[in-house]
Amino acid sequence: MNPVLAALNEREIIFWDFDGVIKDSLNVKTRAFEALFRFGGNEVTARVRAHHESHGGVSRLEKIPLYLNWAGLPAEDALVTEYCHRFSSMVLQGVLDAPWVPGVREYLLEHFGQQYFVLVTATPQEEIEHILSALDIAHCFREVHGAPIKKASAIQAVLSRRKCGPDMALMIGDAETDLQAALLNSVPFLLRRTPLNLSMQTTYRGPMFDDLNNEPPAKNHSWQKPVCATV
Questions:
Q1: What is the pTM for the complete model shown?
Q2: Which of 41, 62, 125, 173 would disulfide-bridge 146, Cβ 3.0–4.6 Å?
Q3: Are strands 169-173 and 13-16 parallel, antiparallel or unpaired?
Q4: What is the largest CA-CA distance in the chain?
Q5: Nearest to 58 by CA among 199, 171, 181
Q6: Which fold has domain 3-24+99-209?
Q7: Which pLDDT does position 229 carry in this prediction?
Q8: 8 A C-beta contact, residue 169 and residue 184
Q9: Domain spans of the chain?
Q10: What's the average pLDDT block by block, 10 residues per block, for the chain (231 residues)?
Q11: Per 3-state DSSP, what percentage of the chain is helix, strand, and coil (rounded to 5)?
């Protein structure tokens, strides 16, 4: 067994992000944001893409008002709601069709009865519940916390309610917001490498993986509390 899987098996509670960790669906959302704000012109589209890609794990509820302002539209509640609905309809099927992160589905299905799996995601609650049901993995998660609940708050509440020490938990994510949520709760962190977090890979000094099935031992493999050079 590779060291990442061996360490995962030791944890009582595992907090999972979704996009980039369970499904390789990051590009689906990038393309949707570009299409949604293309009317603002090439400069706005490029700015939206750059911001979205550098702020993974931040909810569309926070991004869309900002992008509306960049495109010259007022970030009024009704318009934000409309654009959120449009975004949701654009990405839903793409997320369902996106490839699984290798090894993750198998791990979920094999271990959900022995470990306490919690999903923490920036995707809105109703939407992520629908996605999990459509993918037939909803039963793998004891709790699901989507937007507007913050990841750090969800982690804190679960640990408190379960009376679980942070060293017996693990957060698996692919973005700075995921790492920060772990750091705020002193929970060890496992980084899933993606093309969008290359800079994070150079600063984070904890364990990382691409493929849960075939991750070789790494020199930086350490399951102490997460350390990041930018923190």
A1: 0.89
A2: 125
A3: parallel
A4: 53
A5: 181
A6: Rossmann fold (3.40.50)
A7: 40
A8: no
A9: 3-24+99-209, 26-97
A10: 83 97 96 96 96 90 96 96 96 97 97 97 96 98 97 98 96 96 97 95 94 67 48 34
A11: 50, 15, 35
